[in-house]
Design a protein that fits this description.
The complex is a heterodimer of chains A (233) and B (60).
Chain A lengths: L1 H26 L13 H28 L2 H32 L8 H22 L3 H28 L10 H4 L6 H49 L1
Helix pairs in contact in A: 1-7, 2-3, 2-5, 2-7, 3-4, 3-5, 3-7, 4-5
Chain B lengths: L2 H55 L3
The chains are: A mainly alpha (233), B mainly alpha (60).
């Protein structure tokens, strides 16, 4: 049942992405100032929002783990963080390619770019920390603490374009500006693609969570086998 | 701007857009492949551990 749901969700996301790609490439016109390159924004912005959503969900799951001690929340938080990190990487790479054309540089130590890079390093550290600790409860507690700490940087990323006016463009979406900074047809396309990418990310999280469950089952079987061995000895 | 320079700029713009789209899909594809490989490895590991515990439980 679960596998069928995951396959269905991934297929629906794939179809929506294909439809979005058709509209992005063949229906929407070039942007007046940027030409064709602005189309990268239809992946850059939804990937960033997917990453933010994932980190925020991981924060909630981490708090739930710390308050309940249920390891299910911990494995869900790890799955969500890993997938969110993938989309943060998509965000930073596509942004860099766009910047090469529009700014003439691949990278600059602007507040938004730097805080995004820091968040990627924090969450990559989160995943490395999980590999380094074998004891499940200790691993879950430290991971939850790091996830909560990492979310502070996500808030800084979100607000940085309002707090500091540097290289990165200011807010364009009407949910932040009240409208007028972007053509409505282009903004709608961003939301359609966000929906498709969120569906794909959810399917990936479900697959990853299943793998975390299998890992826990393997650990538990190993522990049982070791205990039985010690009893025999 | 003369039409030749404009055409070159347009081509460069289009090429970088293609790089951007390719990079986005490549990152997702690499992750999906790594996820599939990890899933296969975990399934094999689970089968091995199960076989091991079953053989330990069964009487000689």
């Amino acid at each position: 049942m679960r596998e069928k749901f995951v396959v269905g969700l991934a297929a629906a996301a794939g179809l929506l992405l294909a439809f979005d790609l058709y509209r992005i490439l063949l229906v929407l016109p070039d942007e007046a100032m940027q030409g064709a390159i602005y189309r990268i924004m239809f992946f850059h912005i939804p990937a960033a929002l997917t990453g933010f959503t994932g980190y925020f969900v991981a924060l909630i799951l981490s708090v739930l783990y710390l308050s309940s001690g249920n390891l299910k929340y911990d494995s869900l938080a790890a799955s969500v963080t890993e997938v969110a990190l993938v989309f943060s990487c998509v965000n930073i790479v596509t942004g860099s390619i766009w910047a090469r054309v529009i700014w003439g540089i691949w990278w600059t130590w602007d507040y938004r770019l730097t805080s995004t890079l820091i968040s990627i390093l924090i969450y990559a550290g989160y995943l490395m920390l999980r590999r380094a600790i074998d004891e499940p409860t200790q691993r879950a507690r430290l991971s939850a603490a790091l996830s909560i700490f990492g979310c502070v940087d996500v808030v800084i990323i979100w607000k940085s374009i309002e707090w500091f006016r540097t290289q990165h463009p200011g807010p364009v979406l009407s949910i932040r500006t009240g409208g007028g900074n972007i053509d409505p047809a282009m903004e709608h396309m961003i939301y359609y693609n966000l929906l498709a990418i969120l569906m794909l990310a959810t399917a990936l999280v479900l697959v990853r969570t299943r793998q975390e469950d299998i890992s826990r089952e393997i650990d538990s079987l190993r522990r049982t086998a070791n205990a039985a061995e010690r009893n025999i000895a | 701007m003369d039409p030749h320079t404009l055409a070159l700029m347009y081509a460069r713009n289009f090429m970088f857009m293609f790089y951007g789209f390719s990079a986005a899909w490549l990152i997702v594809a690499v992750y999906v492949i790594s996820l599939a490989r990890r899933g296969a490895r975990l399934k094999k590991e689970l089968d091995d551990v199960r076989r091991l515990t079953d053989s330990a439980d069964s009487p000689l």
